[in-house]
# Entry
Amino acid sequence: MPRSAFAATNDFLSRDPLVGRAEFHDIMDHAISANLNLTLKIWRQPASNQPGALKTYQLDGISTDMSFLEMLDVLNEQLIAKGEEPVAFDHDCREGICGTCGVMINGQAHGPDTGTTTCQLHMRRFKDGDTIVIEPWLARAFPIVRDLVVDRSAFDRIIQSGGYVSVNTGNAPEANNTLVPHHIQQDAMGAAACIGCGACVASCKNASAMLFVSAKVSHLASLPQGQAERSKRVLKMVATMDAEHFGNCTNTGECEAACPAKIQLTNIAQLNREYIKAALFSNE
Ligand code: SF4
Ligand code: FES
# Structure
């Protein structure tokens, strides 16, 4: 089996078991390394206060073994060689951890793969001759900085308002002093998987940040360390979310479908319970 076919098989086996057989065959069809000739339509905007537009580029000979960001690297090398401005896009880890790389790819946040960030998307998911439309997150709370780069500091301000626990520093505590039941630990870790990418906001017709905020609130509300600030946290984070002009949640579920960390809508239900309890029964 060629190396790329082996890699694709591994890729498939590590995925959610709900991924369909059709997708497996689609992957295998494209598993043999090949070169793609692509038409890219990329949002170009020189600055936040200047108008932007989709610009078309022809990009030939892109290996199906490349990642999506490597494909953009190739485009930028060609643009620089021609004396043109490279396309600005955010990235850091390129390992699906940092949450900086998100863009809309053919109208889907992070592209066609489920549970996958843009940096983990591979060009084998595309076909020769494809046209790929690449746009930045579009949300009032995420103003465009340049091209595909948006300012997601609204998320940082939500975290600063309450997404933390206050602890006494000093020696590391004995781990067995604070016991956490396994199922609670699993729920907390599931919520903590949020990488703050903003795909939930970009996918939501209301540009709601409820999935992001609910992940942070659920994570800390589940654990003993989060109890002291539990009421204050949820009230402050929701107030900051509203002040940052994120929209309301209307339960369409696009956020969950787009989330590369597979954060579940059940966290939004928990956020609502936490908020009602804090608003009605706490002194905060
Ligand atoms: S909830 Fe998911 S989509 Fe939203 S910021 Fe967190 S990881 Fe990204
Ligand atoms: S570059 Fe870090 S998640 Fe994609």
